[in-house]
Specification:
The protein is an alpha/beta fold. Helix content is 51%, strand content 14%. The protein contains 13 helices and eight strands. Strands 1-2-3-4-5-6-7-8 form an eight-stranded parallel β-barrel, surrounded by seven helices. Helix 8 (169-176) packs parallel to helix 9 (201-217) and helix 12 (283-292) crosses helix 13 (294-307). It is globular. Mean pLDDT is 88; it is low at 303-308.
């Protein structure tokens, strides 16, 4: 199992320096992170929108240790939202945010993260879009769900992410599958102990289907975060069985992974949203993409060998 090893490397300063310094790394990272600034990412947003796709935008960043860094992360999202509003792209792209970037892990972090994320949610609503709160490791979830509940009092369209590999998630899905809710279901990309999470792929896949069935049969809006062809097919069948129309759920996939499938689903009339990250602090995000799928690691290793 290489995934846990790669996730451990994502927290290693030595590995960060080694990989960041490799000449080929930037070329490979561009596959997953197509820009570092708002100016660089705007053409990507236009291109995907012109091809019938929607987006959810992630300003990448990790390891927030000071309140000033959390405020800078907030301001980066506000700058993106301002630009989207100026260009009338508000209905094309929503925001995905990690509350750890907004100071959740600092002293008084729950209140700090709520204070930082609220203006982002307000600004997104003002241009006709919304925010989804990304899930992180299991120790942060009670805080994330509490902030989600608080934000939905004024902005009911605020979404959240749940992770199929956690034992708790089926119960979370039943609570969340209410009218007006927006819930993205993913498999999970953090190293979690066996006490709280399934460890085997077949167990995670079965949990994913059980939880997706709960969401499809509920009154909310399911967002299927998966690149797995089998799970995508199952999702379509569950949607048909639940009597959902094509605009009553959506698929979400990462930028740079299975791009042809993005277009195929959109051409069939499905809502297809591309999770698009940008920014300079890309290392942690990039390493999680390698950990999630062996093919991503093979792609990186092959590129290192052939271009290095």
């Amino acid at each position: 199992m290489l995934g846990p090893v790669i996730l451990a490397a994502s927290r290693s300063d030595r590995m960060r320096r080694l990989i960041s310094a490799a000449p080929v790394t930037k070329q490979v990272v561009d596959r997953f992170i197509p820009g570092e600034t708002v100016d660089e990412i705007v053409p990507i947003i236009r291109e995907l929108s012109d091809r019938g796709l929607e987006l959810t935008m992630d300003v990448v960043g990790e390891d927030i240790t000071r309140p000033e860094q959390a405020a800078a992360a907030r301001d980066a999202y506000l700058a993106l939202i301002d630009r989207l509003g100026e260009l009338e792209l508000g209905t094309t792209a929503e925001m995905s945010v990690k509350l750890s970037m907004f100071g959740q892990a600092l002293e008084g972090g729950h209140e700090l993260a709520l204070a930082n994320v609220r203006p982002v949610v307000e600004a997104a609503a003002a241009i006709g879009t919304t925010v989804t709160l990304d899930a992180e490791d299991h120790t942060t979830l009670d805080s994330m769900f509490a902030i989600h509940d608080e934000l939905r009092k004024d902005f009911p369209q605020t979404g959240c992410v749940i992770q199929a590999y956690l034992f708790r998630t089926e119960a979370d899905a039943r609570r969340l599958a209410e009218s007006g809710s927006r819930v993205r279901l993913v498999k999970g990309a953090y190293k979690e102990p066996a006490e709280v999470a399934y460890q085997q792929k077949h167990e995670i896949d079965k949990a994913y289907v059980r939880i997706l069935k709960v969401l499809m049969e509920g009154a909310g809006y399911p967002m299927i975060g998966s690149h797995d062809p089998r799970l995508i097919s199952i999702a379509q069948e569950l949607a048909r069985t639940a009597g959902r129309k094509l605009d009553e759920y959506e698929f979400q996939m990462l930028y740079g992974i299975r791009s042809d499938e993005h277009l195929r689903l959109a051409a069939e009339g499905h809502r297809m949203r591309v999770y698009t990250a940008y920014g300079t602090d890309w290392y942690g995000y990039f390493m999680r993409r390698l950990a999630e799928k062996p093919a991503n690691l093979r792609f990186f290793a092959r590129s290192m060998l052939t271009r290095g």
